[in-house]
Design goal:
Number of helices: 14
Strand order of the largest sheet: 3-4-2-1-5-6-7-8
Helix content: 25-40%
Structural class: alpha/beta
CATH architecture of the largest domain: 3-Layer(aba) Sandwich
Distance between the termini: 21 Å
CATH topology of the largest domain: Rossmann fold
CATH class of the largest domain: Alpha Beta
Order of helices and strands: EHEEEHEHEHHEHEEHEHEHEHEHEHHH
CATH superfamily of the largest domain: Glycogen Phosphorylase B
Length: 406
């Protein structure tokens, strides 16, 4: 394959790990593409969810072999956000006045543009730069157009899709989908652009099957149920906590760990709820975990649970499977293979259903170990090198089709 000059536009990039899975998946592909001889340039914000990264701005920075340009995000009172502040509130539109002129300068030295999330300025600016300079555009939604996610703050999303995202989707060269469900989501928006299904990947070898060190606050004999992700209303941590509180008295050695950044300031409410139920010592809130602490926690957990309303293709689930930790997930995670492979359960994300599944699995410790071993085998099927092969192929096919239609 010819060496490509690729421009990635994304809302956040390493080391913005508080943002979640997309930072891991986007950087993993970028690094592997660079390793194969392509040039990847990333245009991104300095956002790290509820804080800003301490990184050089408006200039190239080499991050694990990838050239990254971080641009300062502005508040809801700046730029386009003055016009319709309701649309650009929350994590933010991530507007940056410096990004557009930098994109214009870079387009003449770019073969393709690949955007990685709707509803943010980097995608808007990079997509329109690609159209102006007649460059093929590849577009990732990463689960954002799932109907369950569109119901959350639905008015502003519907307005934005109609005015901005749908025109981009229709002019794009190729849409990327992590699952078949994402293809259906594109089509439900009235978009017929060619689409490729390519999942996220995992490097199984970097994940531990046993922790390297003992984790504070977790006794050796404890059965650990782990939630690892942003504490966000759509992620289901509250439903998991309610389910756990229903079984906690039956399993006094069981511990629920709700690990992740408190994006919506929910932890205080969760702590109060566990206090009223009388199980404060059985529910832990370690906050954001990363590095060795994250690897140890994934390996120490006896069960991983993500009862999310909707996911693209969760990196956290893949990480748990790679750590030989069986999973309980919702249908909205769009990963039924965990159940068919015997690596976990898919259950409805309501406290009753979750409590029933937790009760059944926690009471059968030996069964969990067997499920965990099958989970690592399943995760190995999503090797990043195989995924990168598929992305290269999609780029090549899209570029050829784009040239023929020009």
């Amino acid at each position: 394959m010819d060496r490509l000059r690729i421009l990635y536009a994304t809302h956040a990039y390493k080391p913005a790990y508080r943002v979640g899975g997309p930072v891991l998946s986007v950087s993993a592909v970028a690094e592997r593409l660079v390793g194969r001889g392509h040039r990847v340039t990333v245009f991104t914000s300095n956002s790290n969810l509820d804080e800003d990264l301490d990184v050089p701005l408006d200039q190239p920075v080499i991050v694990d072999g990838v050239e990254v340009w971080y641009f300062r995000r502005t508040t809801a009172s700046a730029g386009l956000t003055r016009l319709v502040p309701y649309i650009f509130r929350s994590l933010g539109f991530l507007y940056s006045a410096a990004m557009a002129p930098a994109l214009e300068q870079r387009m003449s030295d770019t073969d393709l543009v690949h955007t990685h999330l709707p509803f943010v300025y980097p995608t808007y600016a990079a997509a329109h730069a690609a159209f102006r300079h007649r460059r093929p555009l590849f577009y990732h939604q990463r689960g954002v157009f799932d109907p369950n996610r569109l119901r959350f703050r639905s008015l502003k999303k519907r307005i934005y899709i109609s005015a901005i995202e749908r025109p981009i989707l229709r002019k794009a060269t190729t849409l990327f989908a992590l699952t078949r469900a994402e293809v259906d989501n594109y089509r439900a928006l009235g978009v017929a652009t060619p689409c490729r299904i390519i999942p996220n990947g995992i490097d199984v070898g970097i994940y531990r099957t046993t922790p390297d060190s003992r984790i504070e606050q977790i006794p050796p004999e404890a059965t650990v149920i782990l939630f690892l992700g942003r504490l966000h209303p759509t992620k289901g941590a509250d439903k998991l906590m309610e389910a756990f509180l229903r079984i906690a008295s039956e399993f006094p050695k069981a511990i629920l760990v709700l690990a992740g950044p408190d994006e919506w300031k929910l932890q205080e409410r969760y702590r109060a709820r566990t206090g009223r139920a009388g199980f404060v010592g059985q529910v832990l809130f370690p906050g954001m975990v990363s590095g060795d602490a994250k690897l140890d926690l994934l390996a120490r957990a006896d069960l991983f649970c993500l009862p999310s309303d909707a996911e693209g293709f969760s990196m956290a689930i893949l990480e748990a499977l790679a750590s030989t930790t069986p999973v309980v997930i919702s249908p909205g995670c769009h990963f039924p293979e965990v159940e068919s492979a015997g690596a976990g359960r898919v259950v409805e994300p309501d406290p009753d259903s979750l409590a029933k599944a937790l009760r059944e699995l926690v009471s059968e410790g030996s069964r969990l170990k067997a499920m965990g071993a099958r989970g690592r085998d399943l995760a190995s099927q999503y090797d990043w090198n195989r995924v990168t092969d598929q992305i290269e192929d999609a780029y090549q096919e899209g570029i050829e089709r784009f040239r023929k239609s020009a």
